[in-house]
Design a protein that fits this description.
- There is one protein chain.
- This protein has about 180 residues and is an alpha/beta fold.
- A four-stranded parallel β-sheet has the order 2-1-3-4, with helices on both faces.
- Helix content is about 40%, strand content about 10%.
- Strand 3, helix 5 and strand 4 form a beta-alpha-beta unit.
- The protein is globular, with a radius of gyration of 15 Å.
- It has one domain: Uracil-DNA Glycosylase, subunit E, CATH 3.40.470.
- It has six helices and four strands.
């Protein structure tokens, strides 16, 4: 898992405006920050449509993501999507304290949970961090197993409202 965390840290912005929280890096070896995961493709497609920009070329979308102060972290620090449900739930619970510490350090303006099944765990981590995001907390379906259209729609609804450290990266609203 060292390589995953090393790769993730390469894209950590100086200041995290919006923290995206997923369950874990996928068991199959793909990873958002390697630009080869389901989540990466779904996120890039939503941003492309919402921002009306093309993010062509290796690293272009991730650089934009970082420049906006967006960062993806995970509840579990090892892949758990392949585990049987009881083990998976246990790993989610055991990831709460570490995620709470990271959230406390990040102090993002907003948090977006990417997977409805981990909402309760992430909310617990937020509480343990001594922070309160409940009123503006977003929880999206993970873009797999038929949830791709729902994820895309939900991302389009929130993208323009997410705190961004680089305001000129936001698409201008037309009257």
């Amino acid at each position: 898992m060292c390589n995953v965390e090393k790769t993730r840290r390469e894209f950590k912005p100086d200041s995290i405006a919006t923290l995206f929280v997923g369950e874990s890096a996928p068991h199959g070896g793909t990873f958002f920050y390697k630009e080869d995961s389901i989540l990466f493709n779904a996120m890039k497609n939503a941003f492309t449509e919402a921002r009306q920009e093309l993010f062509e070329g290796k690293g272009v979308f991730l650089k934009h993501f970082q420049d906006c102060g967006f960062y993806l972290d995970d509840l579990a620090d090892e892949p758990i999507n392949h585990l049987p449900p009881p083990s998976r739930r246990a790993k989610r619970i055991s990831g709460i304290p570490k995620l709470a510490e990271r959230i406390k350090c990040y102090r993002p303006k907003e948090i977006v949970i990417i997977m409805c099944a981990i909402r309760r765990n992430v909310v617990q981590a937020i509480r343990e961090a001594g922070l309160d995001y409940e009123p503006s907390l977003h929880c999206l379906a993970f873009p797999a197993m038929g949830h791709q259209p729902r994820f895309h729609k939900e991302m389009l609804e929130i993208i323009q409202t997410l705190p961004c450290t680089k305001e000129n990266n936001r698409r201008k609203k037309h009257p």
